[in-house]
Write a structure and sequence with these properties.
about 270 residues; alpha+beta; 2 domains; six-stranded antiparallel β-sheet; about 50% helix; about 15% strand
Length: about 270
């Protein structure tokens, strides 16, 4: 499966994109819709089931606690993601994304996810989704059968005003780059951030991978070492270990700050 993601500046834009996707025949259980600070009731206007527009009706069912109805493979949940805050999600894949992002799901949702394939979840992109949600944007993820099917989906999302994940990831890094340059240059004045930035950023992003964050360093050190060795193989002869490992630690610090800020706001 291929995950195709569009990031929208407004929920209404994303809703129009979902309508357009459903009109092309894409099944409801292949579409996930994540939006911050919305109630499940408000999301009942999102057109998921073409047979029941404009509301979701039986496609969602009654929302009880953290779990919703599953009559068409759809799922509506409200959860809190560390470092982001309240997020409402429509779509089975969304439940898996929340779980991977460290959010808490109800027992009923967890039981359904046990039998739901999560192939295609781009775990290395979840931090980009979180950054978009933190900024009040809405994320739409579509699972396509193959790259051939993904192309038209990508084009449709773009036509509806979506920003691609790669562009969002680039803007996220641009927002951090000056501070990381200053930190790196102060810590290692003999090295050049411009020359090391690529490897520093690889380490930084690796620390944000859904599998490794929020764990003690001794729990992830082996995985970090394995990832570093893989990067070395891809760039033979390059002196990159210092940049990568420092980037990795800064990535861990970055995510911890986000979690701490979220906790302080909730207090």
């Amino acid at each position: 499966m291929h995950a195709v993601t569009g990031i929208f500046s407004s929920q209404s834009q994303a809703e129009r994109a979902v309508s357009a996707l459903r009109a092309t025949g894409i099944a409801a259980d292949k579409i996930t819709f994540l939006t911050p600070n919305q109630t499940p009731e408000k999301l009942k206007a999102v057109p998921v089931d073409t047979a029941e527009q404009p509301g979701m009706g039986k496609a969602i069912g009654a929302v009880v606690g953290a779990a919703g109805g599953f009559s068409t493979g759809a799922l509506l949940v409200a959860a809190v993601i560390p470092g982001v805050g309240p997020v409402t999600v429509l779509g089975m894949l969304g439940g898996a994304v929340i779980a991977a992002a460290g959010g808490v799901l109800g027992a009923e949702v967890g039981e359904h996810l046990e039998n739901f394939t999560t192939d295609g979840i781009p775990e290395d992109e979840i931090f980009v989704y979180e950054d978009a949600l933190r900024k009040g944007r809405t994320v739409v993820i579509v699972l396509a059968e193959n790259e051939g099917a993904a192309g038209p989906v990508r084009a449709l999302l773009k036509a509806e005003g979506a920003e691609a994940v790669d562009a969002a990831r680039h803007q996220w890094w641009i927002g951090l780059r000056a501070a990381e340059n200053e930190h790196y240059s102060a810590a290692l004045p003999a090295r050049s951030f411009q020359e090391d930035e690529k490897y520093y950023r690889l380490g930084f992003e690796a620390a944000l991978h859904a599998r490794t964050r929020c764990k003690e360093f001794d729990q992830v050190s082996a995985e970090m070492a394995s990832s570093l060795e893989e990067v070395k193989k891809q760039h033979p002869g390059v002196d990159l270990e210092e940049a990568y490992t420092r980037g990795y630690q800064r990535g861990r610090d970055y995510y911890q700050r986000l979690c701490d800020e979220a906790k302080s706001k909730a207090a």
